[in-house]
Design goal:
The structure is a single chain. The longest helix has 26 residues, at 167-192. The relative contact order is 0.23. The chain has one domain (3-243). It contains ten helices and no strands. The chain has 247 residues and is an all-alpha fold.
């Protein structure tokens, strides 16, 4: 591996880990585009590498949020279990679907989620989230995870907030299904021999180095501030994904 490529992988992993801890996402929104556009990796290989790094670094984020009381397993576990169905469906769908149109649709979804995160109309408070709603969210997040290599937190965090979950808890809880979906997809890639293990380890090393800083920053920000920062990140990601969708 050339030194410039090594540095790019480390930097992408570091940024992804920081975003993971800060926003409860996998960080694939950074890693996948960098691998595809900066390093010229095929889409499927980039997705596999991104999910491998997410599977290795997300448990650290879960633990650090958990010790701060920001992981609600009553929300996280149903989403995680249902997410496995989404991963399986995404694995079947990926080679059969035009990726550019999927990326454009996902960009629009992120933009709408960003708007709802900062909308002046308060979201309805939900004390006990319906199991069917959590399961549906899990399937959608797992599907997005498999198709885009992103972990699925870009879906779960805004939806959990809209259901009345405190933003810090939504961020921490989201990392549980993020890990489960990424780990399941990684097992598939390892079984098929479609994972460049060395590159994945470099990405994961960078991501692990960035997680702690992201978690600390997330809990240093007030509720409203965290929502605004997350919304800005969603808009930036939406614009980038739409611009590079190839539609």
């Amino acid at each position: 591996m050339a030194v410039p490529e090594l540095l790019v992988l480390l930097a992408a992993g570091l940024a992804a880990g920081a975003l993971s801890g800060l926003f409860g996402i996998g960080g694939g929104i950074v890693m996948t585009p960098v691998l595809v556009y900066a390093l010229g990796r095929p889409w499927e290989e980039a997705v596999a590498l991104s999910l491998f790094a997410i599977a290795l670094q997300s448990p650290l984020g879960v633990w650090q949020h958990r010790r701060r009381g920001a992981v609600d397993l009553r929300l996280a576990l149903p989403i995680a279990v249902a997410g496995l169905l989404g991963v399986a469906f995404g694995d079947w769908l990926l080679p059969r679907t035009p990726v550019p149109w999927l990326k454009l649709a996902f960009a629009l979804l992120m933009a709408f989620a960003a708007y709802r995160m900062v909308a002046s109309v308060p979201a309805p408070r939900v004390d006990d989230a319906p199991m069917a709603a959590l399961a549906g969210l899990g399937v959608a997040a797992g599907l997005a995870s498999r198709l885009f290599g992103i972990g699925g937190g870009l879906l779960t965090v805004p939806v959990l907030v809209l259901m009345g979950t405190r933003t810090h808890v939504a961020v921490g809880s989201s990392l549980v299904p993020v890990f489960v979906a990424a780990a399941a997809a990684t097992v598939v890639h390892l079984a098929r021999g479609t994972l460049a293990l060395l590159d994945g380890l470099v990405l994961a090393f960078g991501a692990l180095a960035g997680v702690t800083g992201g978690v600390r920053l997330a809990h240093a920000l007030p509720e409203r501030g965290l929502r605004r920062v997350f919304a800005i990140a969603l808009v930036v990601a939406a614009v980038y994904v739409a611009a590079t969708s190839g539609v």
